[in-house]
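Field reference: "sequence" (input) and "structure" (output). Example, Cyclic nucleotide-binding domain-containing protein:
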Amino acid sequence: MTHKCKLKSEKEIGQDNETASCFKNLQLLITISAENPRRFQCFRSDVLVREEQQRHLDTYYYIIHPFSKFRAWYEIWLIFLYTSILITKPLDAGFFSYRFKDMTYYKAYAITFDILSWIDIGVTFITGFFNKESKSVQLRPSKIARNYVSSIYFICDVLSSMPKCALYLESTIFLINHEYFQIYGFVTIFNLFKIVRLVTLITCMHRAARYFYIKSKGFIFLLDSVTICALIIHWMACLQFCIPKLTHTYFYRTPLRSMDIWMYKNGFANSSMGKQYAHCVFRSSAYILGIRFQTHATMFPEDYIVAMFTYIVGKILVGFIWIILAMTILNSRSIEIKLMEMVNQVDEYMRQKQFPLNLKNRISQYYDFKYQKVYCKEKSIRNMLTRNIKTDINIHACKLLLSNVSLFSELSPTEVKQIVKYLVPEIYLPNDIIVKCGTSGDSMYFLSSGTVAVYARSGKEICHLQDGAYFGEISLILKGEKRTATVKAIETSQIYRLCRRDFERSLLNNRAVLRKIMKSAEKKTKGN
């Protein structure tokens, strides 16, 4: 029976909207997309996605959906935009000033980013947002505006996007009338408010990782940490030059006092920007690491404040780096650590119960073979999966067994799935008795890996069985029949057991397989 879908596709939804039919392609770009992985936060099925598309296009079709293709690519663009702004803003506040009036290329560069910041503000006003409390998407313009304006991002975006570089065009006025320097100082301070977008930058990096299906949490965590540390060090270096300039150039201009400031000594304030930045990085690094700094000694209160602030931030940053390294190492070796914890618990258990050395070695050998130095909670993982997935896992785990046991080659895929579902894995160590002669049998066994020895009633060794062999079927075919041989493991062996009830469910209905088992049972009976 074939499925005929009666639901409307994305293209059909765009065609049904008469108001914006000519903007169909644009609508499909800004409406919710099934390809955006963020939509699983509240729209898990295709039906819900299409219903949300229809709701969007029937109401506020001009609003950008937060789970749209456009928003996904726009957030990737924001990574480059915010990174560039977070680098240039402190540089502008600290090192660039009206004396760089001949640097037209920088003016154009800075003004361009200010314009892009205003465009980002406008895009935010026409982009819906996901409400985590109600688990819904808000597309109403009034709610979008209220949500943005009431947040700290709005005021910081507006103040930090004031075109400070545009004031360079009026450099002659500043040179004539020094009263405008205070306005220039306030604009410089406002530009530093862009630091709040560091949180948005990290958020966009996480979302971009989801868009590109990067699942390595260790890599994402390391990338976030490097980004945060690099930007903080960069801002601290710029503040070393920015704060004295704000205090003594824009707000409190006294030439006699300015000659004692470290940044004006030996003509350092008039040196190249590269030299200034390198010295400030060295100066801030010394404060961050708590190293005594003698070059250009500090003499004013604001310098002490900057030094203490840098030192505190530096200690937090150093602690953060150590935490990052520790968590990265722990995450990369979490499996080994959990295995060591389990092994230590087993050792402690054996010590407490005072097991003999031989038994301790056997238990250790069992755990080494079972986990292969890789620990996982298999039972907890399997309990979270569906029945069909569990069956597929069983088939994959038994693929070596299925390829080696000739009995399974005569089964259909459906019958293979049926029998694999009932197989119970067991591990036998050397000299473990799997089947004992003369006992009642209620199971047959399939040897996946290892070697076992078969002994007759007299104790004489008959043969060895290796990968792909099966035994114990006689007592299942002939009810009431006792075990005719003893089977003992020679080496550590992986064996799958099939009990009588499951044997009757899965194999007795297949005549070809039953005939083959009967012949094998008769042959073994005669041999014994």
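The CA atoms of residues 408 and 416 lie 7 Å apart.
The two ends are 53 Å apart (CA to CA).
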